[in-house]
Amino acid sequence: MDPDTLSLSQPVFQCLSNTQARLENHTELGNGSSAAIWRREESDLTRYQHPGHHTLSCYLGGGHAIRRIFAHHTQGGGGPGRICLMPGDGDSHWDVNGPIHFMHLYFSEQQLKALAGRIQDKSSDHLQLQDMTFMEDCWISSLCQQVIRPLNWQDNADRIALSSASDMLMVHLLKNYCGDYIRLPESKGGLSPYLQRQLLDYIEQHLDHPLTLQELAAFAQLSEYHFARMFKVSFGQAPHQYVTERRLNRAADLIRDKSLSLAEIALRCGFSSQSHFSQRFKQYYHVTPAQYRKGH
Question: Could you give the domains of the chain?
């Protein structure tokens, strides 16, 4: 993984790159945010000074001995599942002791305001993201550890799930940790029957492409937030779940054509590698693609 390809607009990422921290995974997300997984083994002092972007940190392992340094006191309480929220205009100083494994989500103030505006259908210019240290939020922790982390961050087939999950995270932050955010009644309607047909046709024609939530929402001429909600109302599942099922259903049909190799089928169904395709296929059908082919 080449750090030179990463956005220079992420000073927290760059700061960690200059320490003994080891980068395990990184991806740019379709909504302009990015995510990274880091591991630190060495004790060190780290300071993020007014980075200009927000950072959500979720502890995956360790972190019991880390302390945040304030002007007149220090604060402990880290550990697996704990969450830190660092606003872009803040200054945070950390005394890292002992091993720590954590995930970061980086996003801008502009993204947060734009998301609030899309949800509320009006301008949101006065948001204040809270500064939180070692808080407990089981919803965030579960989403990071059980949904985002297991995904293949480099595979096109998981791009829509990654972007959907990052949007869900930011909506949660907006509703629970932003001052001056006013909740409006949620829309309960679904997509029109005509749009449903058009959308499903579009998905079928592009299953071999790296479909994203942003692309599907643009096709429906809706914000990503409203599109995801209306899609679930209409089809009973999230967009990424539907797309993944359609990829696997198509793969099952193609496997019956024994003139096609499994690697070719993987590419035709939007998976960037045969190994990732095989893993997802087995999770869904409880047999490997090869075993499925033998039975058909």
Answer: 3-179 (2.60.120.10), 186-296 (1.10.10.60)
